[in-house]
Amino acid sequence: MNTVIFRTIAPYLVALMMVFSVFVLLRGHNEPGGGFIGGLIAASALAMYGIASGVSAVRKAIVFHPLSVAGFGVLLASLAGFASLFAEVPFLMGLWATITLPDGTEVAISTPLFFDIGVYLVVLGVLATVALALEEDDRSL
Amino acid sequence: MAETAGYNIDLPPAMIEGATAIADWTLVWPVALPLFGAAVLLMARKHPHVQAPLALAVIAAVIASCVTLMLRIADTGPVAMTMGNWLPPFGISFTADMLSALFAVTSSVLALVVLLFAQSEIEPREVRYGFHQFLLLLLAGINGSFLTGDLFNLYVWFEVMLIASFGLLVIGGRRIQLDGAVKYGFLNFIGTTIFLMAVGLLYGTLGTLNMADIAVNASRADPTTLTAIAALFLLGFGIKAAAFPVNAWLPASYHTPDPAVSALFAGLLTKVGVYALIRVLVALLPAMRIELDMVIAILAIGTLLLAPLGALAETNLRRALGFIVIGGIGAMFAGIAMSVTTSSGNALAGEGGGIGGAAVYAVHSMMTMTAFYLTAGLVERMTGTTDTRYMGGLYGANAPVSILFIVLAFSASGLPPFLGFWPKLTLVRAGLDAAEYWLVAALLVNAFLTTIACARLWSHIFWRNGREADQTEQPNDRLKPLSARALRWGLAPTIVLVLAIVGLGLWPSALIEYGRLAGVGITAPDAYIEAVGLAGGAQ
């Protein structure tokens, strides 16, 4: 499994998968995709990086412990729900704002987007925790 | 539904008109805040010293929110909020009436006491493995179950609760804990699967899972089908509530984790099953409950009589207490069996009848059993054993604990003037009015047997001077005094909780009045349906 070819190509593949996972996440509101599947792709990228370069390299690369990433995801999702407190509408109501860039492109920013990013981070964090723990010999949570 | 026929079911009109008052958010805080807090604590995993204070702040905010909600419901009736502003029954409604709010307040207060008690015994390793996060998630699951107004959402909160309780059960990592967790987990999974099957069948029959909408539409469906579904609900929730004969998982698992965790479980988890049963059978499907009345009464009598016998036979302290918890479930089932609904035209419907008694009994059982398990934790720590036969001589070693124990014993058996007396009195009165003499007899025999079982525990642990068997005259030299940490964080919160039990026993009128309101709200759910916004619609 751990051949020279795999070890050489893995970092490029991992980078590509990470970019793709973000693409899938952002595409998800109206088309197939979304936070859950995006998080799965990102987590498998990290798992692959761990197999190729070792778990300590992954932990160094992602800076935060994956469980903290998952915690931040839950935080972000609940904050997206709390945003409707200030609009005097019920919890988890979808709120939208449009930003026009200098070249005329319109970018829609919404609370469902932040909720979905939260889902992405939760899936990424939890699965990366499991995958890295399995790849590691000793247990360190 | 017919009410929405006035609208086009396009996205914009299927939304609620008008602004949502900030005050309505008290319905969401008890669930959202613990989730939010658990997320923050998960991120702060590397800082064990901020965990307990942050969890304490979150639970205090939850209590404030629950109390505000309860006072508002007592004042103006049920409150509802539908997530994402979707028009009910399409959106998921959170709906609270008196029963929900009363249970949510009690659960949140007990979570606070258990959090404080846990500081007397928790190991750094358990903090690192996420004790406080699991505690907050468990509270979110419990409050979510009480406050939700949607049956599938109820299932989701059951799962949140189950996952958090798995974590708390195994967090110490001892062999006996894994053994308990397997039994607890497997039997509870069967319970939730049966619950989920019933939810699916009900959706297939009625086409809705919004609780208020079910209450409106239940009379139009085929009663035979609905009775079968109600029986499935009874089985599923019966397993969750540990009613006879599906109670085996409770005494097999509740004595295995740390005392604080088992106190939380014993106080709260089974009552969520009782709550769901009251909500589904009495408020949503009242005609089906009348069909199943005989079954519920037999289950209640069986639970009432057999549970204290189990407690009499046990020598493991916390296992014996587990059987006393189950006996209390029998009393609540008796309340469900003797409840009278408006459809049956009984004069007692205005009083809330058996449901009011069951609600007050549930509050009593939550408080008394939590305090009982905490006291048992202190006893186990001083004696260094879990076997009551080797615990003798504690009266001389620690008189305050013996007083706590005897107060709780009297409260659990329902002797005046303690808290347990009042719900039993309400239930007996409701039973006499409804001419359910077998249930009344079983309640009284249960009180008698529970008194014997508790007195046996007390005399084994406290009254006997010394060691086991024929060495009763020799002093028990295995007793250890409580450490300063155990006195401050263990004994003090327990004393406060027991004082609350005594206080509520001496001045019970407010609690009984809230219980009556809860019973009225369940037996005549018109205000509940109106709060969701479905009143008079869908005819």
What does this structure look like?
The complex is a heterodimer of chains A (141) and B (539). Chain A has one domain (4-140). Chain A contains 5 helices and 2 strands; from the N terminus they run ααααββα. Chain A has helices at residues 4-27, 35-53, 55-62, 66-82, 111-135; strands at residues 96-100, 106-110. The longest helix of chain A is centred in the last third of the chain and has 25 residues, at 111-135. Chain A is elongated, with a radius of gyration of 18 Å. Chain A starts with a helix and ends in a 6-residue tail after the last helix. The mean pLDDT of chain A is 88. Chain B has one domain (12-528). Chain B has 539 residues and is mostly helical. Chain B contains 22 helices and 2 strands. Chains A and B meet through helix 4 of A and helix 1 of B.
Write the layout of secondary structure elements.
The complex is a heterodimer of chains A (141) and B (539).
Chain A: H1 4-27, H2 35-53, H3 55-62, H4 66-82, E1 96-100, E2 106-110, H5 111-135
Antiparallel strand pairs in A: 1-2
Helix pairs in contact in A: 1-2, 2-3, 2-5, 4-5
Chain B: H1 29-43, H2 48-76, E1 79-82, E2 93-96, H3 98-118, H4 124-128, H5 131-147, H6 151-170, H7 175-206, H8 211-217, H9 223-241, H10 249-253, H11 259-284, H12 286-291, H13 293-313, H14 317-337, H15 353-383, H16 394-397, H17 399-413, H18 421-433, H19 437-463, H20 484-506, H21 509-523, H22 526-532
Antiparallel strand pairs in B: 1-2
Helix pairs in contact in B: 1-2, 1-5, 2-3, 3-5, 3-11, 3-15, 3-20, 3-21, 5-6, 6-7, 6-11, 7-9, 8-22, 9-11, 11-14, 11-15, 13-14, 13-19, 14-15, 14-19, 15-17, 15-18, 15-20, 15-21, 17-19, 17-20, 18-19
